[in-house]
């Protein structure tokens, strides 16, 4: 059932592409929060429940499909360009800041996994962002170096083929063993999404993976300050280990906060005491946004 508080929305990016999403407008003017679930993930996955949680606590929440994902425009489909994705978030901040229910000085970015990385990178260049919540952030998206050469070889052949008029080449998001082409282990994630009837496409352009190989956020982390940032790490995160998330957190300037969700992994961190997990985020936001 569609929540009565949810509205279908769309907005254009600077490049003229239409992105579509859902807005949960608060009853009175106040903070806004933009949430996103990660690499190749449509807005239907995970974040609707979290948007509802924040909405019930006075936030106007926005979730949307980035370029070529889900209901949004963009070709080829399921194509991720990190710099373009950051620009999608920048343009979403612009759109949300014009909503009458939102205080433009109190817009938060909330990102999970890959989008923990992207929301951090966005905040490093967009000073309108009032705070960042990065949950289980995949700080290093390059994966296993031993897989790079094969991906680059495929990607270069694909570029030449596309220039000759052929369709883009795709690789799976995860293979039958639950492993991404760059080696990150997601386990039975896509099968689980299918069982839940969530529209996750198990394909990604090979060009997306080539771009991931050359992306690093490390030089941007110190530049996020003075934007308040909270990093939330599942203790047993099997996709990007907790100690590496903590090392990235240590590179951030103040103000910042680090939270560990004890006994939880990358995929079950919000099951159980959901309020306990999110109230720590909310307390941090209340403090720094003066709510």
Q: What kind of sheet is the major sheet?
A: 8 strands, mixed
Q: Could you give the order of the helices and strands?
A: EEEHEHEHEHEHEHEHEH
Mean pLDDT: 95
Report the structural category: alpha/beta
The radius of gyration is 18 Å
Q: Widest sheet: strand order?
A: 1-2-4-3-5-6-9-10
User: What is the 3D form?
Assistant: globular
What percent of residues are in strands?
15-25%
Oligomer: single chain
**In whole angstroms, how far apart are the ends?**
31 Å
Low-confidence stretches: none
Number of strands: 10
Contiguous helical run count: 8
Give the helix proportion (percent range): 25-40%
Overview of the molecule:
With 291 residues, the chain is α/β, with parallel strands linked by helices. The strands form two sheets. The protein has an eight-stranded mixed β-sheet, sandwiched between helices. It is built from eight helices and ten strands. The longest helix has 16 residues, at 82-97. Strand 5 (102-112), helix 3 (114-125) and strand 6 (129-135) form a beta-alpha-beta unit.
Q: What layout of secondary structure does this protein have?
A:
Blueprint: E1 7-12, E2 18-24, E3 30-36, H1 47-55, E4 60-64, H2 82-97, E5 102-112, H3 114-125, E6 129-135, H4 148-163, E7 170-171, H5 189-195, E8 204-205, H6 206-213, E9 229-234, H7 242-250, E10 256-261, H8 274-289
Parallel strand pairs: 3-4, 3-5, 5-6, 6-9, 9-10
Antiparallel strand pairs: 1-2, 2-4, 7-8
Helix pairs in contact: 2-3, 4-6
